[in-house]
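At your convenience, could you comment on the folded chain following this short note?
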Amino acid sequence: MRLKGLLLIFIWGAFSAYYIYTPVPEDIEERWKLMLTDCFFRTLSHLADFSELLGLRDYMGVMMFITVAEAVVPVSDQQVRVTEEHFDGVEVVVYQPALQGGDSADADADADADADAELRRGLVYFHGGGWCLGSSRMSPYDLLARQMVTELNAVVVSVEYRLAPAHHFPVQFEDVYHVVKHFLQEEVLAQYRVDPGRIAVSGDSAGGNLAAAVAQQWQQDPEQKIDLKAQVLLYPAVQALDLNTPSYLQNQHMPILPRTLMVRFWSEYFTSDKSFFQAMLANKHNGPESASLLKFVDWGAFLPEHFRGGYNYTAPPVVSATPPSTQGDSPLRNMGDPRASPLLVPDTALRNLPRAYILTCEYDVLRDDGVMYAMRLKRAGVDVTHEHYPGGFHGALMFTTWPAEFEIAHRMTDNLIGWLKHNL
């Protein structure tokens, strides 16, 4: 028994050393806590790979454990009233200030009691998770929504859009767009006491992608009568054409979102065809459909020198043939759609966009996506606040709850809410 115990200790020690060791830069914030946290993510990723290999469950099905583990039941408290509703058939969680002196289950009674109150800000929030994972009901999103309600006197609509691989693009975009279109009706805004002139779309990672795409499509929608005032894009993914930007190469093995996982997210967003995933991994997934759009992701032109890290720009190759199983609803065509890759539009489509808050992190494969989008928006004359965190990593803003609570997450939240107080 003693020998077995020693053997188990040795195996566990070797296992822990393997998973804890990773080439994490010394200047990344709370380095050892991040390395320990990443052990969980990498272990789950390997289990997901193994499960898919054995045909037990697909990769994303196993990775959904992250969503389940962080899930909470959104409930009202003394400061925030929470309701689960459907906007145009899409599930949403609505957070709004609670009534003074008690909560009420009657929306009309709420409106009457609030009739003389100041009109509120409105935010529609899209969660991250690579279009495949995540939920508005995860504890970090629940906490963020409550902070926005109490500190901004805001109504926050957190969207539970459908996920890949069960649903591919453009389902996710259509879900969030339908929610925005429903919310920005005069009678709906009046119901929630929201000021029509103080509404923003916001999201992190894949949610930042959706927020940027919604902002673009909204200004082109002939049916819209109310303008968005702001777009909040937190380490957004905004292009799928070049997956070898300096940040993809520099941070390909970084914690939380290594390059392989981000490529898998992009691939699953468009198709379940594994051959397309392999093509994207090799950065050889551009065909004639996207060739003319590569100029919009030329990081040699749109990325400031200090972000290039000594890398020299080389345009991704354009392949002439596509995998046979992708010929129908071609992911090559879809990834060039601005609703999927909002960076791929001319300056004329950017000029009238609402003011933007863009957050990027140095140690994030998506860093250059956010930097390039901020640069292009500025050149088009859009009011942009670009906040870059030199010691930050992907997903940092969501690490606000035990046992993975990081100081940088609270700092990011405070800075974001501070910006919204002055700009929304």
Strands lie at 80-87, 90-97, 120-126, 154-159, 194-204, 230-234, 355-363, 384-393, 400-401, 404-405. The chain has 17 helices and ten strands. Residues 1-17, 102-107, 324-328 have pLDDT under 50 and may be disordered.
